Amino acid sequence: MPTIESLRARFPALVGPTTRLDGPAGSQIPREVIEAIAGYLATCPANLGGVFAESLAATRLVAEARERCAAFFGTEDCDEVGFGLNASTVNATMVALAAATMYVGDEVVVSVLDHDASVLPWRRAAAEHGLNLRVVGLADDGRLDMNELRAVINSRTRVVALPYAANATGTAVDVAEVTRLAHEVGALAWLDPTHMAPHEPLRVRELGVDVAFCSAYKFFGPHLGLYYARREVIEAWTHRTTPGASIEAGTPPLESLAGLVATFGYLDDVGWQLIASQERALGEQFLAGLPESWKLIGLPTMDGRTPTFALTLPGADPVDLARAFAERGIAVGAGKFHAPTLFETLRLREGAVRIGFLHYNTDAEVDGALKALADLAG
Question: CA-CA distance, 104 to 270, in Å (whole number)?
Fold first, then answer.
């Protein structure tokens, strides 16, 4: 099993002066991914559809990327996956296709934990098609209110669209139970696993999910959107039997697909066991040392969450706090993280500071973050 030191050596950006705890906004990129992108651009640029060697190589690259993407989502059907510009645009495309099959009065369920990229396309679709949008709130512990979810799902529900884990707070959702509730009324289980993607296998088929989407730059890859849609679902949207090609627009970004294949190779080499154990240890270390002056938004243990922590300090502006971290050589996030409804619900007008750990972070970096928190609390 690789050591953390050997893994960090594969990330050129990690040798810089800044401690990168901004992983929830986008991970750093391993050298093999960078080299795969550059290597494709240097040696193989060609469009699809030709009979010469470089075009045939591009065709093979697309097929390999689709096969690896299917494995990443947990399906054996390569026609159930595809690519786009990013998670936001991929989701918007699929929402438009799904909404076109709905009727006035049909209902879509979302939650306050959602990223705007998940909710805004449904808001637009609701206005255009006369749909009803139902928004599920939080339980007392900051998780999704499952009792409220059960109450709002009904015979008119067509889609239940929820995150695998909240981008802002790291709070996870019980996807299997959400999927079960959706399927009980014949609705689609529509999952945004973008925040969870660098932390654990997605297993959408095993969980019963019908639609899912994410961005590769969140899990050590290039800026590229990925989607999964169950074959029967996407064929119903498009009335065609070539799912992968039916919603992808134009020539794919071949250099990004080369990088994506290398990203999956990196994940295979590291292994999810190392990722899970390292991240849990970092998260537990952070929670154990969190100064009492800071308020943690979300779960106080590593059970049911990712190692992403939203924090507030009474009387302090999150942006000012993030700037103070930057002055100490630590990159953290500040604001509402494209989840405004969540922070409105929490009555945190300015949002929060967000500190996130990925498997390449170290014990020493956790200690550095805790010292900065203590210093800023006075």
Answer: 48
Identify residue 343 by its one-letter amino acid code: F
Helices (H) and strands (E) in the chain, counts: 15, 13
| Domains in the chain with CATH codes | 4-30+271-377 (3.90.1150.10), 78-254 (3.40.640.10)
Quote the pTM value: 0.95
Handedness of CA 199, 201, 207, 210 (dihedral sign): positive
Asked whether 370 and 290 are in contact (CB, 8 A), the reply is yes
* Residue range 40-83, pLDDT digits in tens: 999 988 999 999 999 999 999 999 999 999 999 999 999 999 99
- Give the strand pairing for 352-356 and 308-312: antiparallel
Which tokens hold the place of 17?
């002066």
User: How would you class 25 by CB atoms within 10 Å of its CB: exposed for 0-12, middle for 13-18, buried for 19 or more?
Assistant: middle
